[in-house]
Every structure is written in C-alpha cells, then in structure tokens.
Amino acid sequence: MITENLPQYELLDSGLGRKLEIISGIKVNRPSPQAIWKPRLSNNDWGLASSNCIRTKDGGGKWEHKREPSSDLTIPFVIDEKKLQFKLKFTSFGHCGVFFEQIPVWIWLYDQVKKQKEKLGRAPKVINLFGYTGCASLVMAAAGAEVFHVDSSKGVLDWGKESLALSKIDAKSVRWVQEDAQEFLRHSFKKNFVYDGILADPPSWGHGVKKELWEFEKHISLLIESMNAVLNKENSFLFLSCHTHGVQPEALKNLIFDKRWKTIHVGELGVKHQNDARILPAGIFSAAVS
C-alpha cells in the first residue's frame, strides 16, 4: 500500500534519518528513522525548509519555524466526490495530525464499509482503535459507517472533532471514546456488542487512560483475541498495522489468522518520493475480510 499523490503533500527527499516534505504549502524537515540512506537533494535544498523538528535527548522534540504556521492549516482528502478536511497542527514529536502513508488504507476502509453497508442493509458498526486524530474515522463515516473512535488522549479526540466539523460530516456518525483499547473491547464483549469492522493502528508502546501499559509484542495477541470476540462472525473486516521494529508481515498474518476470514492480505506501507521511484517505508499491515 503506497501513497503516491495527494493535493498539498509532497515527499521531496529523505536520508540520514530525516525527510523533506511540503505539507499544505510549508516545506518541512523532520525525523524519519527508516531513512538510513543518503539524501539525493543538496544541503541548500534541505536548508530551504521553513519548519524543522529537532529531537531532544529526553525523547521529545521541538519545532523551529522561520515563519509561524497558520492556525487554520488543513489537508484535503477527496473520495467519491466527498471532500474531507483534516486539521493540521505541528506537535513536539514531529507529527502534524496526518500520517500520509495511511491514504491507501483509508481507500480500502472506505470500500469495505460501502460493501458492508450493501450486504447488511444498514450502517456498519466499526471501531477505530488507537484512533489518533480520526482521519480514518471520518473516511469510514463518509462511507456510511457508525464509527466508535477510541483513543486514550482527550487532546487528539478534540482534534478529531475539529476535523469532523470542517468536513461537514454528521456529528452523530462518530462517537469519540476516551478509553484504553483493551478495556473498550472488554466492555463491548460484556455488553454483547457486535461490530462489523475494526481498524487497529497500535503504537510500539504507550499508556491508556488509567496509565495502563501497552507494549506491542506483549499485548497484541490478547488484543486480537478481544477483537475477534466482538466482530460479526459472518460479515466483517479487520485491518491491523504495525510500526514496531523487527515485526514482519507474516507475523501479522499469523496473529490475525482465523477460520472466519475468506482472505488475508499482508504487506508494507510506504510513501513514494515525488521525483524518483524510492519508497519511504512506514510500517506493515495485515487486512482480512470474511
């Protein structure tokens, strides 16, 4: 799944642990640990970046802006003539609220929701676990889903609501849930709730609302079991992505393997450079449909 084109976004170059991009008209230089090769553009080209993210020794970071970015920056995403708007903000970790390698994932999710809606004759109920700022949630809502967006951070939930309003999507189509992912699934199982699709994009490590510790290698197997327990057994889909060093695509396939799935696809996520054929790796995925 490779991102190649998006209005207001370009991957210009990468190398030496950095990437050079244009995001909504702003030339950005920020960390990219996967970029272990040498850059192709000159130091002068890289020096034209107006926003630079600098990592700090404590694992955090800070932005240095030659010109302070506007507070109303957005990235448009158009699908089926529906124009969504995702709010941009530059965070200390070098993020901006949109992970551009996810664009092919959004298209896949949109198609799955439409198929589910046609088969079920109603709005599919779907979950977005570790949902961050909600780009995928808005895409699924635009396709006709009832979305449960789950994240432990109130800040990113509020951020997602801003994008929802900008995209002019029915506010009732997305429920913003501040909760630990595993706890949300446990509660759903206890209440006999059933869902028609799940997207999970877990971090390598993190903390839940009550400081619950999350480590991908230790906890992902239990999370998959909990997801399977609340999924519609006859008509459903599951998309799992991973950004944890050392985990291979076949490992994700083994994780989600279940007799209910008619198809399971695995592969890599990446972004193509604007002016050459190089792909910047951005994780792996497994996608299943019953």
Structure commentary:
It contains seven helices and 17 strands. The protein folds into two domains: 2-68, Sandwich (Immunoglobulin-like), CATH 2.60.40.1180; 76-289, Rossmann fold. The protein has 290 residues and is of the alpha/beta class. The model has no long low-confidence stretch (mean pLDDT 94). It is globular. It has helices at 43-47, 103-120, 135-142, 154-167, 181-190, 216-230, 249-256; strands at residues 2-3, 9-15, 18-23, 26-31, 51-55, 61-65, 74-79, 82-87, 125-129, 146-151, 174-178, 197-200, 205-207, 213-215, 237-242, 263-272, 279-289.
Keywords, separated by commas or semicolons:
Immunoglobulin-like, Rossmann fold, 5-stranded mixed sheet, 27% helix
Tell the overall outline.
globular
Low confidence ranges? none
As a percent range, the share of strand residues is 25-35%
Q: What is the end-to-end distance?
A: 20 Å
Approximately how much helix is present in the residues?
A: 25-40%
Give a summary of the structure in a few sentences.
The chain is of the alpha/beta class and 290 residues long. It is built from seven helices and 17 strands.
Describe the protein's topology:
Layout: E1 2-3, E2 9-15, E3 18-23, E4 26-31, H1 43-47, E5 51-55, E6 61-65, E7 74-79, E8 82-87, H2 103-120, E9 125-129, H3 135-142, E10 146-151, H4 154-167, E11 174-178, H5 181-190, E12 197-200, E13 205-207, E14 213-215, H6 216-230, E15 237-242, H7 249-256, E16 263-272, E17 279-289
Parallel strand pairs: 1-16, 4-5, 9-10, 9-12, 10-11, 12-15
Antiparallel strand pairs: 2-3, 3-4, 5-6, 7-8, 13-14, 15-17, 16-17
Helix pairs in contact: 2-3, 5-6
